[in-house]
Design brief:
The chain is mainly beta. The chain contains 2 helices and 7 strands, in the order βαββαββββ. A 7-stranded antiparallel sheet has the order 1-2-3-5-6-7-4. The mean pLDDT is about 95.
Length: about 150
């Protein structure tokens, strides 16, 4: 998986999805093929808050973070491919066939490949993989529903 060029940095990513530190789990986009595929990544710093508790003395990136990272990359793909959807809320509707293959540690650059398999209206089916180097660390199939964003009443 090639991840050398940078087409979107964290500031541009933040214009497309609402997540912010400490739950913004991608920091670079390397490639987007509109309505088809995205390649994104995150450099895992030893300072990531999650490593303080998972696990002290043996920091391992949590499996659910792989799923969330892949879903965030998928959201960037959907929103950048369909500008009229920017500002909508993307809700994870289903997660299937999850496999965790390899742990990640501080210092790893985790790369995410997400492919759009099907869409119907504002409902999307995707599959994604997380890689460390050329090894698959996790893989998942998931679905997302895009809904109009609700305004906060606070």
């Amino acid at each position: 998986m090639q991840a050398d060029k940078i087409i979107m940095d964290v500031e541009k990513i933040k214009t497309l999805i609402p997540q912010r530190f400490p739950l913004l789990l991608i920091d670079t986009v390397h490639e987007i093929i509109e309505n088809e595929k995205i390649l994104a990544s995150k450099l895992l710093s030893a300072d990531e808050p999650v490593f303080a508790g998972h696990f002290p003395g043996n920091p391992i990136y949590p499996g659910v973070y792989y799923i969330e990272s892949i879903a965030q990359a998928g959201a960037v793909l959907l929103f950048s491919s369909n500008p009229s959807t920017i500002g909508m809320t993307g809700l994870l509707a289903g997660v299937e066939q999850v496999r965790f293959r390899r742990p990640c540690k501080p210092g790893d650059r985790v790369k995410f490949e997400v492919i759009l398999e099907k869409k119907r209206g504002m409902f999307f089916w995707l599959k994604g993989k997380a890689f460390v180097g050329d090894e698959i660390a996790a893989e998942v199939k998931f679905s997302v529903a895009l809904l109009p964003a609700e305004k906060s009443t606070k």
